[in-house]
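Hi both,

Apologies for the delay on this - the queue was longer than expected. I finally got the S-adenosylmethionine-bound model through. Below you'll find the protein sequence and the ligand SMILES exactly as submitted, and right after that the structure tokens for the full complex including the ligand.
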Amino acid sequence: MDETFIADAKDVLAKDTSVIPDFWQNKYKNEASKNWDKFYNRNTTNFYKDRHWTDREFEELRPSHIFTEHKPVLLEIGCGVGNFVWPILERNPDIFVYACDFSPRAVGFVQSNENYMESRCQAFVCDITKDRLADTIPPHSVDIVSAIFVFSALPPEKQADAVANVIEILKPGGRILFRDYALYDLAQLRFKSGHKLEDNLYVRQDGTLSYYFSKERLRELFVQHGGLVEIENDYVVKKLINAKLNIDSDRIFAQAKFQAPITTTDSIDASAGKTQSINNSEVLVE
Ligand SMILES: C[S@@+](CC[C@H](N)C(=O)[O-])C[C@H]1O[C@@H](n2cnc3c(N)ncnc32)[C@H](O)[C@@H]1O
């Protein structure tokens, strides 16, 4: 992002000085699951396209990459109707995928999809800010957690709880793959007055929340609060050019990877196993 763009974006955001009243803020936060469920009632499985780009952006998702000495386990949090999950299952014949969402309707769509096989996939309802993932998934058993456009739906004060929840099921050396909306994204700049709850947090027309992340916020959540190691943390800028209207504008995403550290205790406990070197870090394999 260049300096002029950032200065212009800051000017746009500074003009929106009002925030919506507490009553409505609480209502949107308390009814988040209901509002997402209504979203899937309206849109069924037709809103998002399958995310075929994910293994281009995250090498961990390629079958030939890491975690190859055992059957990898992945958890997709906020899985929606499975648009991230299906391409991963198709490309990785050995992987097992857990998928959770707090919209029962979305989880129902995943479970009734023709690609859903209980031997390869388990979808379940879970609010990641308050329901323990470890009640469904064995603690420290997951190699990869994908968080694709889900943290933006959480109020900032609940984001750290979701991180702690995920860490409980992540293996030592396991990774969180993160992609979401970033600060100054076109969608943030387009919010009209009357949608802001606080800086970088907005409510859409349909009542769902949208938070816009900075790299610093991600570091605070995953490294300072979560104790994870930052492997990657950057902005991805996609230029949209509308030649007819002579407008070019930016979609900006935050893309990051964080890794659970391998403690001395873990290394001793697992001393009967082997280790495999991944990007200068040691990851335990079965
Ligand atoms: C933008 S959609 C992304 C869906 C999916 N990850 C994908 O890439 O297609 C965000 C999803 O997060 C889910 N979600 C929001 N807050 C959640 C929470 N607290 N716990 C679990 N799921 C949540 C919503 O129901 C919705 O399905």
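Main takeaway for now: The two ends are 42 Å apart (CA to CA).

I'll put the files on the shared drive as well.

H.
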